[in-house]
Structure formats: C-alpha cells, structure tokens
TrEMBL record:
Keywords: Cell membrane, Membrane, Protein transport, Transmembrane, Transmembrane helix, Transport. Its main location: membrane. This is Biopolymer transporter ExbD. Signal peptide: none annotated. Pfam families: ExbD (PF02472). The keyword Glycosyltransferase does not apply. InterPro entries: ExbD (IPR003400). One of its GO terms (cellular component) is plasma membrane. One of its GO terms (biological process) is protein transport. Belongs to the ExbD/TolR family. It is found in: Cell membrane. It comes from Muribaculum intestinale. It is a single-pass membrane protein; Single-pass type II membrane protein. One of its GO terms (molecular function) is transmembrane transporter activity.
Length: 233
C-alpha cells in the first residue's frame, strides 16, 4: 500500500493586519503621550520617599538652577479654551501690564512676539529683555537660556521683597499666573498648581527666598519635586 502524502502548507504569514495594528497603536501613543518639557538647565533633585505625582495640567513649575537662576514653566488645560499656549499668552500680557505700572521704561510687545512666547515651555529672564529675546531665532534663544551668551542676563529677578505694592518680577509673574484663569487659580489654591524643582546642590538660602516669596503672595501650598529614594539612599 502506498504512503499517504501530506500536503505541505505554505509557511508564509500575512503581516498586513499586524502592521495595521502596530501603526494604529503607535499613532495612539503619540497623540496621547505627554512629552517632557525642555528645561534650560539640568537639575538633579534630592531624593525622598514621597510617591505623590504633580498634575500635568494647570500647573506652574518653578525651576531653581544650581546657580540660583529662576525659571518658570506653565502648562494649561487639555481643553482648547485654556490650552497652554493661550494661558501663556494671557500671562505674558498680564505680567507686562503689571510691570509697566511700576517701571518708567515701558515694555511693548508685538503680537508676533506674544505668539512666540506662548510656544515656550519654560522661560526666565528680566521682563525688560523679553522683546529683544523674542526677536532672536530659536537656536539663539536656546543658547541664551543655557547661559552660552554671557551678554544676556538669565533668570527671573527675585529678592526678599514683601511690599506687594511694588512687587519684584517673580511676584509679578506668579500673580499673573494666578489671575490668568479660574482653573489656574483653583489648582494654586488647592496646593497642586505650583511645583518647586531645585537642584540637590542649590544653596538653601536661594530656595528659601523663592518659598518666602510664594508665602508673601499667600500661595502657601505647593509641591517640592524630588526623586524617589532607592534602597542604596
């Protein structure tokens, strides 16, 4: 009796469906992911055991560099009505208006400059320098923020001022953020809207000055960003 021949089946696998699913998943994660903000300086935060997470919407990050330079980063809401760019544009205009009330040399901004500022995730320099800074190219702006252009002063000016009738520039910015919209006001009042991020080697007196300014503004609730402690810490 002859052997029964088993019909060989093709080993070819149609990958079309899998490729479609891969592209769909990749698109989904790209559209729903929150990308890290570009920061002008590298900050190594101190370690702690806290596992509380800072919200990703309606939050202001106060970045304190090891040299004591102050930078601010503002994120708005996912809703287009209070998107990050719209919130930043309102904050800038409010801050400049407040600044001009107490300074003889007025700052004037064009709409193009306002639009450029609205796209900045993090900023930090004297308000008087903003118009010239915003006229620079993106490459030059990055160099300035990273301290590679010594002719530019970086960092938001801050001191121990407690006279809110004549606020320093850090206080001007924080009040402008608070007054920008109801969502920002609500998160700041709850203590979730302000996150202070300082380097582990930043002198304490500099950080204390920042916290003292927040308390002067009656912003007594805020978070301190830290890295999670490991077993070796």
């Amino acid at each position: 009796m002859g052997k029964v021949k088993i019909k060989r089946k093709s080993t070819l696998i149609d990958m079309t469906a899998m490729s479609d699913v891969t592209v769909l998943l990749l698109t989904f994660f790209m559209l729903t992911s929150t990308f890290l903000q570009k920061e002008p300086v590298t900050v190594i935060t101190p370690a702690s055991v806290s596992e509380l997470k800072v919200p990703i919407n309606n939050v202001t990050t106060v970045l304190v560099s090891p040299k004591g330079e102050i930078f601010l980063g503002v994120l708005g809401d996912a809703d287009s009505t209070y998107s990050s760019e719209k919130v930043r544009a309102d904050i800038l205009q409010n801050a400049v208006t407040e600044y001009n009330k107490t300074h003889s040399k007025k700052v004037q901004l064009t709409q193009e400059q306002v639009n450029k500022f609205a796209k900045m995730n993090m900023f930090g320099m004297p308000i008087a320098q903003l118009p010239a800074f915003l006229d620079e190219s993106q490459v030059h702006q990055d160099e300035i923020m990273q301290g590679k252009r010594p002719e530019w002063k970086i960092g938001i000016p801050v001191d121990g001022n407690q006279d809110l009738a004549n606020p320093n520039e850090f206080q001007i910015w924080m009040r402008a953020i608070y007054n920008s919209n109801d969502n920002m006001e609500k998160t700041i009042k709850s203590g979730e809207g302000i996150a202070v991020k300082a380097d582990a080697d930043t002198p304490y007196d500099i950080v204390h000055t920042v916290l003292d300014n927040l308390q002067t503004l009656k912003m007594n609730k805020f978070s301190l960003l830290t890295a999670l402690k490991t077993e070796n810490d």
